[in-house]
Amino acid sequence: MSRVIVVASGKGGTGKSTVAASLGVAFAGRNRRVLLIDCDSGMRGLDIMLGVSKSLVFDIADAVSGNCKTEHIIYPCSHTNGLYLIPAPQKAEDELSPEVLWQFIESVESQYDIIIIDSPAGVGKGFETAVYPAQTCIVVANAEPTSVRGCVNVRRRLTELGKEDIRLVINRLSKRGFFKMNFYADLDEIIDETQIRLIGVVPESTQVVAAIQKGIACTEECKALAAFRRIAGRIEGENLPLAVC
What is the pTM of this model? Predict the structure, then answer.
């Protein structure tokens, strides 16, 4: 049975989809067979990040409506063996219901070790669909007050929906910028405010962002890649240290 993980955020611009894609790459690097499901209907972007946008013909709405077979909407990532993508519908009105997404995942989960769902930002209907089948919920924040407040809203809604395994990733952290902006004395303040257990800190990385936006593999070793590998290991229960910025 697969482990189903949702990646969410309280507001846009946190790098949530970058986290989802990078975790997919990290798990594939651990010899896991990984399926990424883009649930951001009308705003899909994982196909660009994984380098498969030119190959797209069908999306998940086509499969559930019977317009194509399931295998027609599963696209192999061009730069990472073992990583596959199901793109979101092009139209926002084709958004799936929570029950339909759950049933769809049940039909394919035996083929994958890890299923990662990229949720729309915020806590709207698309968010509730994305989190419905998830066992582990990753909430992505930046070290700034508006982002942290959004995480509080996400954590509250996840709790209302009965989710228990909720983890925090602080993304795009610049040590110099953190202390210069002086929003928080330290990361503990962010953790205390969100009331979410920290599972990883990802340093700011132009290399990772540039590679992701070009749909290619990041081949230059950096602290951000090490952070994603550690997060993947920690999700699977390994006692690994947080990345150091």
Answer: 0.95
